[in-house]
Amino acid sequence: MSSGSPETPLRALLEGLAYAAIIEANVGAIAAEARSHHDIDISHEKPMVMVLAPRAYWDYFRVTPQARSWDSAMREMADKVENALEIPVLFVGLKNCEVSPGLRGQPATLLRPVETYRAI
Asked: What is the pLDDT of residues 42-100, one digit of tens each?
């Protein structure tokens, strides 16, 4: 974002839901490609949506006055999504970790073992 603040948890959730819809719509082709190119079997179950971020990300929104009580509203929205779409939605925080952002075509990577906790 131009303000220097991270993308919001709402945007992350919406992006995750969009990716989940794409995966669900194409799971047969994805599974066939994973099998033929990587010898991996992919589940045909509905995908799970996880908003996974370092502690600093969640802390940023907890101390930002404009966010106020965003976490309870997000959890309520996630519960509605879970019930309507029958997919789990999780908000997960990472503790004691270092994340490489994955620039120039490289994937994002966790650089050392992490601890997780339920963020909201």
From this structure: 888 889 999 988 888 888 888 877 777 788 888 999 999 999 999 999 999 888 877 77
Any idea which residue has 């799970």 for tokens? Answer: 48
How far, in Å, CA of 18 to CA of 25, rounded? 11
Buried b (16+ CB within 10 A) or exposed e, 48-76: ebbbbbbeebbeebeeeeeeeebbeebee
Task: Report pLDDT for 2.
Answer: 41
Buried b (16+ CB within 10 A) or exposed e, 105-115: eeeeeeeeebe
Q: Which residues contact 94 (CB under 8 A, 6 or more apart)?
A: 52, 53, 54, 55, 110, 114, 115, 116
Domains of the chain: which residue ranges?
9-118
* Total-model pTM: 0.77
